[in-house]
Amino acid sequence: MIGSLRMVGRNPIVNEVREMPIVGGTRVFRFARGYCLAKKHSMVGFDVVIGYNGVLIFVFHILFGSPGLV
User: Fold this and answer.
1) How many domains does the chain have?
2) Which of 9, 30, 35, 49 makes an SS bond possible with 41, Cβ 3.0 to 4.6 Å?
3) In angstroms, rounded to a whole number, what is the distance separating the alpha carbons of residues 11 and 15?
4) Which family does it belong to (predicted)?
5) What are the pLDDT digits (tens) for 20-34?
6) How many CA atoms lie within 13 A of 14 on its CB side?
């Protein structure tokens, strides 16, 4: 697994497009920064398909002697 991204902020489903900041993540994305745009593609009952487009800036650090980072 490469890692995961962490997004925070309001996500009001009634808006057509929502913008949320990317404030970090796990593993190689630990110091990631950026933003993500979320848009609802379809909704049938309680089933919703949401598309995410993001702009990401992250610093890739390799710490010698620390296993499991890459």
Assistant:
1) 1
2) 49
3) 8
4) Belongs to the plant dirigent protein family.
5) 999 988 888 888 899
6) 0
Q: Is residue 33 exposed (0-12), middle (13-18) or buried (19+ Cβ within 10 Å)?
A: middle
Please say whether the beta carbons of 53 and 26 come within 8 A: no
pLDDT of residue 13: 79
Residue indicated by tokens 């909704």:
43
The answer to the question of residue 70 being in a domain is no
Determine the structural domain holding residue 14 and report its residue range. 5-57
In the three-class reduction of DSSP (H, G, I as helix; E, B as strand; rest coil), residue 27 is classed as: helix
Q: Are 67 and 56 in contact, with CB atoms under 8 Å apart? A: no
DSSP state of 62: -
